[in-house]
Amino acid sequence: MKLFGRGRIPVAVIAALWAVSILFYGTIPYQENGYRHWDLSKYLQMAEAAPGIDTRVERPYGERLMGPWLAGVLHQVTRLPLDRSFRLLSLLAAALLLGLLYRFWRRCGLSGVTALLLVAFFVANRTQYGFQIWDYFQLNDWIGLLALVVGLWALHDGRWLHFTLAVLIGVLSREVTLILLPVAAVFLHERGTLRRQGKHLMLVSAAAVAALILLRVAVPGAGAYETWRAPFWFHAKIFQARTWFGWLLNGFAPLTWLPLIFLSETRRFFASSPHLLALVVLTYASTMFASDTERLLAPCAVAFYLLIGRLLEGRGLRAELRLAAVLLPLSMFTAVSHLLPLADRGRLSAPKLPLIVLPAVAAVGWAWQWKRQRKEARRQTIVP
Q: Are 129 and 118 in contact (CB under 8 A)?
């Protein structure tokens, strides 16, 4: 799996986007009272025990071993402070993820220009990319996303060993990576190979279950809560306005509604790739297992931005660049909302709301008008 094809332009563009995002999103003042009791405190405690395992950390944090363990080992080997170890690994993982996404979207048939545009859209996503750059202790999020992209890529190529390793690494970082298993089942069904290759999927599932059991044994988790009970604890989310705001707008603002504007193309996209629809549906369902919403939608960003890429490419290069010239600045403008206090990221406060809603409305209005003009132009070419 080569990260980049021929030419240095993709490498330079992605490196520039990555570097600018580091400066733009900043770093969390984790020692302040408003932040030091977040889940990052659990990850720091786990990292301090590396290369051993701190079994006192409650579940599910204590079961997310991979990121804190790597940061702790790096700290032991290089004597870097723990916070810098987390930051270094998070930034490297972010760069690797951008490269993998670019190559995966190219692997799915998109042009280099479109794939680079999608990388830029993803970097401008404050909740799914920017927040992890800012809160660099969420190293497990990066590792889980890397595992998911590698798992999808391996699934498309029929490389079961790579798929197995991706799932196991995902289990050790973020439990949401387990959605790869039902996604794989749908993929095999749509390819008509479920009976022939289902045994491979069963073996991978058995390995994932064994890994989960070993985690439960290794990390008893004093005062822990069970993941399967989470929907009962967070069921009130479905009645909260901010949850629907995250699902329907903020997760992919300002592009969230574009698939509805181009509904026929969206239907064709998911009809040809039901496993990507399964990825989106399962990701949205998984947000009911935690208090956050937008950040947890990141796994389906692979499919969402691929859909956006297909919508852009279906109109020709000139029209694609015209669309991008409008949508990309709107996405960057949406990302500006991170300049307000991130501790209030769950509130629909008056100063932040326009920075998210107005670009989305502008994107929808422009896309709708553009679509109408295209239809009118086609109608005029048909009329003798």
A: no
- 173-177, 315-319, 380-384: which has the minimum mean pLDDT? 380-384
Question: pLDDT per residue over 68-121, tens digit each?
Answer: 999 999 999 999 999 999 999 999 999 999 999 999 999 999 999 899 999 999
Taking the domains of the chain in order of start, what are their residue ranges? Answer: 38-221+228-338+347-379
Q: What is the pTM of this model?
A: 0.86
Q: Check residue 344 and give its pLDDT.
A: 44
Task: Please give the structure tokens belonging to residue 34.
Answer: 């408003």
Q: Phi first, then psi: give them for residue 90, nearest 5 degrees.
A: -65, -45
296 closest CA partner among 355, 356, 230:
230
> Read out DSSP for 128-166?
IIIHHHHSTT-HHHHHHHHHHHHHHHHHHHT-HHHHHHH
